[in-house]
Amino acid sequence: LGWNHPGFGYSTGIPYGEADANAIEAVYEFATKELGFAPKDIAVYGWSIGGYSASYLANAHPDIGNVIIDASFDDIMPLAIPRMPEFLGSVTENCCRKYFNLNNVALLPKYQGPIRLIRRNGDEIISTNGHASGNRGNQLLIAVLESRYPALFKDQEVEDMVVDWLDQTSPVPRRLSIPGYDLEFCKEQLRNSEGPPDKNLGNGLNRDEKLKLAYYLFSKHLTDCEGGHNNPLPRKYFKMPWKKSDDVTS
Predict the structure, then answer these.
(1) pLDDT tens digits, residue range 181-225?
(2) CB within 8 Å of 190: residues ≥ 6 apart
């Protein structure tokens, strides 16, 4: 099902956060009650500010099967304030929080089902510095990983390495930063783990083992693709999210 936000296309209304949440709820109700889809068979895809709609729905209905967030952000505030005159900072903040509170990072990490985040490496809209390092989707990914595997991703050395990986736009330099990368070791750790969430995953591992496992999970949740914010997503990047069961049964 495709739909337009309130105020977009032929949809009436104004795209305030509450109106957007009500609209996506109506789409969900239609899909489940009128068309008969089971929540576990639903994949939610949200592009740009549609990341808020997808985050809201995933939080409200945690039994949804899959969530894909494309070219979106953690919170609208860090993107809105730099684009307004400095003297309007408090006004911008108040308007964002009262009317356009698109705070994805407060919603999406609560969902523990399969997630894929797609980051456009040339995204000129949701980057605060024009580079991958300033892409506000980075903060959303970090929050998702920390909510699922806190013992691993809140480790300071792992945190620092994740920031370095997010500065890159290719998996090659990331892999080179992990000497002795062992795919089977990572899969074995997941076979013996709980969840997600798994609050203890990573406990008892040494630094190198933590980085190997962190990179594996990082790469399973993030997809980098070329192009700008408004470029159509190439078909090859549209894939269902990774599930832990893919490794547990392999």
Answers:
(1) 899 999 999 988 888 889 999 999 999 999 999 999 999 999 999
(2) 201, 244, 247, 248
Query: Half-sphere exposure of 205 toward its Cβ, with a 13 Å CA cutoff?
Result: 22
**Three-class DSSP category at 225:** strand
Return the closest-CA partner of residue 48 out of 76, 83, 84: 76
- Annotate 165-202 with b (16+ C-beta within 10 A) or e (fewer): bbebbeeeebeeebeebeeeebbebbeebeebebeebb
DSSP-derived secondary structure letter, 236: G
Phi and psi torsions of 59, nearest 5°: -70, -40
pLDDT digits (tens, 9 = 90+) for 143-170: 999 999 999 999 999 999 999 999 999 8
Most distant CA pair in the chain: distance in Å? 57
- CA distance linking residue 18 with residue 29, whole number of Å: 16
Rounded Cα distance between 249 and 42, Å, is 22
What's the pLDDT tens digit per position in 64-101?
999 999 999 999 999 999 989 999 999 999 988 888 89
